[in-house]
Structures are given as C-alpha cells and as structure tokens.
C-alpha cells in the first residue's frame, strides 16, 4: 500500500483509461467501417468538407483562441499553427480530393487456383485502428482523418496541445460528415486528454491500436519509434543524397541539384548532401556551387572539394549525418558508385537518394545497391511525395523495412487477408 | 560505482556484445547478399544439401550428444529433437526445393508513368537482417536459413539449448554451401551464445536486426511479441473456427469438420471450435459429433448444444478461448453469420476461420466480416499452410496487421523500394 499520491502515476492512469475507452470505441467502429461501401465513406468526406466551409468562422475563432493562448511562439511555429480562410478552404478541398480517389479496400491484389481446385484470393483490408500523433499544423488532423476514413480504419488524432481548440473545431466538422453518412462518430476521434501521458498510453496500446503514425520533428518521431509497443510507420529524418556521377550531363546536374536542394529546404525529400565523382568535380563543382550560392545556399565541404574551392567551409564527419532542413549543403567527393553507396550507408537515413548520370549501367548499379526506400535516376529528390507519385494523398513517408516504404497513401494504409474458396476440399 | 558483480547483468552485457558482433557481420553480408544473382544463391543451397547428405554421420552423432545431454525430456520433446537418416534427407530435399523456387528479389511489383514522364517502379527487395528464434526442432533452422538466403536476407539462428550440437552440425553444412558459392559465411549464423540473455539481446536490437521471426509454443511467441523492439512476424496461436451455416451441405460439413479438427490436431490451422447455426444443429450436430467421436475426439459444448446432446461436457467461457492443439472440440450454437462473427471476434486469434455453406451471399458476408488473416469457404482450415498456398516453402504464419498475413513465404519475406527513372525532371 502506498499512501502517497503520485501525480505522474495518476496522470498516466487517467490517460490510459481515456485511451482505452477511445480505442474500444474505435475497435467497435472498425468492424462497421471496414465494410462501409465507398459511397458512404465519400459522402462523409463531402459533408465534412461542406461543414468546414459553413463553419469557417467557428474554426477561425477557435484558432484565434489557440494563438492567443500561446503568445511566446516562434514565427515559424506561429505560421504552422495559424489558419485563415484560404487554409480552411484547402482543408475542405483536401477532403474532397480523398473522396475522389478509388476505394482501396476490397481490391483483389492477387488470385490463383491450386491444383486441388482451391481458389486463393489476396484481398486488401483495412489495418484496423490508427493512432496519429502530430504537432502544430491543424490541417494534418483533417488530412489524416480523411485518408484513414477512406482506407476503412478508425483514427485517434493526437495533435499538439497548442492547437487544441482548432483541432476540436475541425473535428466537429468531420463528426458532422460522419453523422450525415450514418457512420459511427468513433471513426474519427480527437484525444480526449491533452496530457503528455496520453501519447505514452497510445504507444503502449498494443492490441488496442494497430498502427501508430507520427508526423513532426525528429524528436517526436524518434521518441515514438523508441517507445512504441504498437507497429509504427514513420521516418525520423530525410537525409537525402544527390550523387553526380562522372557521366552526368552537366546542365541536367545543375538543374536537378538546384531543385533538389533549394526548391523547398524544409521538406524531408530535400537533398542534404551532394556526392560528386572525383573525375567530374574539377570541371563541374564550381558551377554547381555558384548556382546554389546565387540561390542563397551555404556549404560544408570535405577536403577534396575544398582543394577545388578553398573558400568552402570545412565539413565535419557529423555534418554529413546532419539533416539541415535549411539552405546548407554538405559536399563530398567520391570515387565511383561503390564509394557513393558506402557514404550513403554510413550517413543516410534510407529515405531518398538520386544519381545523375547518362550511363545506364552506373544508374542500375546505384539503384540496385541502395537500401533506401526511394532511389531516383536523373530526377530531383524532392519528387519523393505521395502526390508526385500519383497516390492522390499521403499520410506520411516511411523508411522502415516492413509493410510500406516511401510515400504512404491509401493503398499502403491497407493490409490484406486471404479468401480461400473451395468446393469441399479436405487436406490429405 | 557498484563493486558487487551482478551475474545477470554480466550475462546480458556478454550476450549483447555477441549479438552486436553477429549483427554487424550480418549487416555487412546483407549488402552483398541483396545483390547476389539467383544462380549463386541456388548453388549455395544445392551445395549445403549435398553437405547434409555427405556429413550425415556427423549430424547424427551431434544429435545423439544432444539427446544424451537431456535425459529428462518428454516423449514429444524427444521426438521433435531427434534426427535420423530420413529426417536429414528431408532437410536436404527442403534446401533443394527452395533452390528450385523463383527468386523473389528484384521482381517488379508495380510500374507506372507520371504525366511528367517519371517512370515509377516498385521493386521487391530483401528485408535485411532476420533473427530467427525457435525451439527444439533442428530442421527449423535449416528451413529458415534456406528461405532467408533465397530471399536475400542474412539470418541469425537461435534455436533451443537442447539442440545445440545438432544446430552446429547442420550449420556447418550450410557454411560449406555458402563457401562453395562464394557467399559470406555471415549470411547464416548460429547464435554464438546459448544464454537466455541472447534472446533478450536479439529482441532489443532495433536498427541491427530488421525482423524477428519466432517459431514455437505460445509462451515463446508471446514473450517475443511483448518484449521485442524489432518488428515481429508471428502468430502466438491458431484458435481457428469452422462455422457450419444453416445452408451447409451436410455431407460436406461432416467431411470438412472431421479433417479440420482431426487430420492433425497439433498444428496451428486445426479447428478448435465448431460454430453451428441453430437452424441446422438439431439435424446435423449429432452426426458431426458421432463422426468426430469415432475418431477419438472429445467435446466442450455450450448449453444449446447440450440441449441437443446432453452427454456432451459443458464448455466454460475460457474453453472457447483455449487452443487445445489436441483431440478436443469446442461447440457453440449461433444464430446466423453475424452471431458467428461476433463469437470469432470475442474468442479468435485472427488466424483462419471457415464457413461451410451452399449460400454464396452468406459466404461473402462471412468472409467480408472477418478480421482474420485467412477466411475459407467450403474448405478445411488445415489448408492454411505455405505449401498448400503454393508458396513452395514457408517460414511461418503471421496474424499481425502489418506487412504480411497468413503463410509467410519467399515473397512475403521481401520488402520493396521504389526506382524513379527520369530524364532530368525537377519538381515545380
């Protein structure tokens, strides 16, 4: 018997009870949602989009309360948290776009007949209950709700504390959509508890939650990866490489590298490190650096690169393992494909790497030698995106080895089951 | 500073160091094995099979040492541990069969072209380093080694302590095969440490091991599922149901149920519970019970079944959640498909369930409503097996929601990556 109350233990117990109640409601809804026909799911999404538009004033008022409640935010954080009419409209359109995508549930993924006449069919099926853990962008919750709903999996949304009122107002619109379509409201739930312990309860909920998807900074994702007892689809970082091979077309290399590094420096598919073949470096590196410098980029270069351009700042070993998410490019000179692959294995995050070359056999060698989720040949690493892949929507990017790799869209959010159809067969 | 040596901590540290060394060697081999062409892998398997045959005497002598070292085994355990010339020959043939299967690595799983001309290809790729944890059957190690090798993933084998000498002798033959084919010996390693702490070290090795596969009793598998920080493919039990619908063909129901329960009672796909529609029970249940009783089966029945056959033993609620793996059948009377699905959700293990019916819409309803990895219509649950599915070989059965479900063969032991092939595209 312990007579001294422990507030941390109490908070954990309260969070666990709240999570269990939400997860059980989600599990019950899952059985229903897994069998919901496409028009029902699409109607819920369309009605939720309509509610986002008609209840825009409420949403913006809730968002203003969130902003007022957190006066000490950085400008970047404040920008991520802020909603305006254009952003609400973008959320509504996002829901409608998901409604327009094909239903991933029930697709026949493979089918064959055995010599004994058994017909075996592999059929796409919802994963079950998803737990979505994200930070300050309120639209992440709306996007995730739409994708999970269409993929037939109830979701429990746990956004950042700072966006509490915004999340509740958006959730009210999604609940309108669910009710209008006759779907259980437990298909999309907002964490009933803003305590940090609720995240811990989600991560411990093996058997209650089937999949956790974290979206946010490296700190959040790494914590989830390390603590979760529930399977996780995620990427902690995108330490992407662009490798300029000696047989690269120089104009193509300049165009792709500038895009891969500088189009948007803050996304996970942006290039952090340029690898360049020694044979190409003397002629090409000065041009590549001049292009990027004109766009505002800074550099961290190894000794061989600095032998060509001594004004570049020296790179430490740690720099090559740093995801800058900023206008900074690491540069290393390498000696061919194996040398580039070796650098990527030491420093990369198995996200996306590109080779620029006109030599097909070098490109094959590079692509086959990568362990990364995505390998590109003569294209910008910034193409690693569900929309650019044609998935229509994505809930995240995965760099683990199991289930799904690369952009995670509706199809990747499904699992499968087998239907075995016989005529009375028994096993000999 | 703690001056008192703690043997448990020491054992854990030693096991962790041993595991890390093995896993690093496996990781280095993975890069090589992932790119090994099919003939090289097949040669290793064929040479290993030849070595098993030519070194049969050594293997049997090692097995005799294991048996002599463990005099207090149960008969069943002793049988699982025992090798003889027929069992060694079966292992060798198993390796040759895997060599005869198509290479799962490098298959193009999907391919499409985007409006901007990017060609996107989803390509099958090895998972990485596999950790296999099993119990007393020495052949499990040989089978797992063959499947992992063919699927391009190095494996660390951790069998039961009782089979230590047998495992080492079999491993020596596999090492012969690897050497003959020019593959790194670290492609297949036996745990260098028989301490129980080595299993703990494997389960903690996130980032070093990519996938853990446990094969054995519920205790082992449940421990692995609960403790592992590494993704796991497994099933802790197969609590399979056969549901005899009111529109079942009586002769087919009798034939299938007898096979599903009694063909082999100790495998995970054997039926543990008969669900029978109230409308069919009075006429059919006496026949079904008489058939099974003649085969030596005993019963645990609910009140409605005992109203028809009062001599049946009553079932407790716990019985319906018990995987007997024996000649015992639970019997529950249900009221239609939803009632059967409800029973399965409460008591099942999401492994394999069958419906026997001539009514197609009832069968669809049942199959669509299941969460289980495998749903069967008019076939025996004992067909849940990689060989019966046409996979040629299986490393286990998975009942989780992610990656692979049902029998895990060569294809399911692969992950994928994307190849994105451009002509200089940059992202707008």
TrEMBL record, chains A, B:
<comment type="pathway">
    <text>Amino-acid biosynthesis; L-proline biosynthesis; L-glutamate 5-semialdehyde from L-glutamate: step 2/2.</text>
</comment>
<dbReference type="InterPro" id="IPR012134">
    <property type="entry name" value="Glu-5-SA_DH"/>
</dbReference>
<protein>
    <recommendedName>
        <fullName>Gamma-glutamyl phosphate reductase</fullName>
        <ecNumber>1.2.1.41</ecNumber>
    </recommendedName>
</protein>
<keyword id="KW-0028">Amino-acid biosynthesis</keyword>
<keyword id="KW-0521">NADP</keyword>
<keyword id="KW-0963">Cytoplasm</keyword>
<keyword id="KW-0560">Oxidoreductase</keyword>
<dbReference type="InterPro" id="IPR016161">
    <property type="entry name" value="Ald_DH/histidinol_DH"/>
</dbReference>
<dbReference type="InterPro" id="IPR016162">
    <property type="entry name" value="Ald_DH_N"/>
</dbReference>
<comment type="similarity">
    <text>Belongs to the gamma-glutamyl phosphate reductase family.</text>
</comment>
<dbReference type="InterPro" id="IPR000965">
    <property type="entry name" value="GPR_dom"/>
</dbReference>
<comment type="function">
    <text>Catalyzes the NADPH-dependent reduction of L-glutamate 5-phosphate into L-glutamate 5-semialdehyde and phosphate. The product spontaneously undergoes cyclization to form 1-pyrroline-5-carboxylate.</text>
</comment>
<dbReference type="InterPro" id="IPR015590">
    <property type="entry name" value="Aldehyde_DH_dom"/>
</dbReference>
<dbReference type="InterPro" id="IPR020593">
    <property type="entry name" value="G-glutamylP_reductase_CS"/>
</dbReference>
<dbReference type="GO" id="GO:0004350">
    <property type="term" value="F:glutamate-5-semialdehyde dehydrogenase activity"/>
</dbReference>
<keyword id="KW-0641">Proline biosynthesis</keyword>
<feature type="domain" description="Aldehyde dehydrogenase">
    <location>
        <begin position="9"/>
        <end position="295"/>
    </location>
</feature>
<dbReference type="InterPro" id="IPR016163">
    <property type="entry name" value="Ald_DH_C"/>
</dbReference>
<dbReference type="Pfam" id="PF00171">
    <property type="entry name" value="Aldedh"/>
</dbReference>
């Amino acid at each position: 018997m312990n007579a001294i109350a422990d507030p941390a233990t109490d908070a954990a117990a309260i969070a666990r009870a709240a999570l269990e109640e939400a997860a059980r409601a989600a599990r019950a809804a899952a059985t229903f949602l897994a069998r919901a026909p496409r028009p029902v799911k699409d109607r819920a999404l369309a009605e939720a989009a309509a509610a986002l538009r008609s209840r825009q004033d409420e949403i913006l008022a809730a968002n203003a309360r969130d902003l007022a409640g957190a006066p000490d935010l950085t400008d970047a954080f404040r920008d991520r948290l802020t909603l305006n009419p254009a952003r609400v409209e973008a959320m509504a359109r996002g829901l409608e776009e998901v409604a327009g995508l094909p239903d991933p549930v029930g697709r026949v993924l493979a089918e064959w007949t055995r010599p004994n006449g058994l017909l075996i069919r592999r059929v796409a099926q919802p994963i079950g209950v998803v737990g979505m853990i994200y930070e300050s962008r309120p639209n992440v919750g709306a996007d995730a709700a739409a994708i999970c709903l269409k993929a037939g999996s109830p979701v429990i949304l746990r956004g950042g504390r700072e966006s509490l009122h915004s999340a509740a107002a958006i959730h009210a619109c999604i609940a309108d959509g669910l009710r209008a379509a006759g779907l259980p409201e437990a298909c999309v739930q907002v964490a009933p508890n803003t305590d940090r312990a609720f995240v811990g309860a989600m991560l411990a909920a093996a058997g209650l939650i089937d999949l956790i998807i974290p979206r946010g900074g490296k700190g959040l994702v790494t914590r989830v990866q390390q603590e979760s007892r529930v399977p996780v689809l995620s990427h902690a970082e995108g330490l992407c490489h662009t490798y300029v091979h000696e047989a690269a077309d120089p104009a193509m290399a300049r165009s792709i590298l500038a895009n891969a590094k500088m189009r948007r420096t803050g996304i996970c598919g942006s290039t952090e490190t340029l690898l360049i073949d020694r044979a190409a470096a003397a002629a090409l590196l000065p041009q590549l650096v001049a292009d990027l410098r004109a766009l505002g980029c800074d550099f961290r270069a190894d000794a061989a690169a600095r032998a060509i351009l001594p004004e570049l700042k020296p790179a430490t070993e740690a720099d090559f393992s740093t995801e800058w998410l900023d206008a900074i490019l690491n540069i290393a000179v390498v000696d061919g494909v194996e040398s580039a692959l070796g650098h990527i294995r030491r420093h990369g995050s198995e996200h996306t790497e590109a080779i620029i070359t006109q030599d097909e056999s070098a490109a094959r060698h590079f692509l086959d030698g990568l362990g990364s989720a995505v390998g590109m040949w003569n294209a910008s690493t910034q193409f690693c995106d569900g929309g650019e892949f044609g998935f229509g929507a994505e809930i995240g990017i995965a760099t683990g080895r199991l289930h799904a790799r690369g952009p995670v869209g509706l199809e990747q959010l499904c699992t499968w089951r087998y239907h075995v159809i016989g005529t009375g067969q028994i096993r000999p």
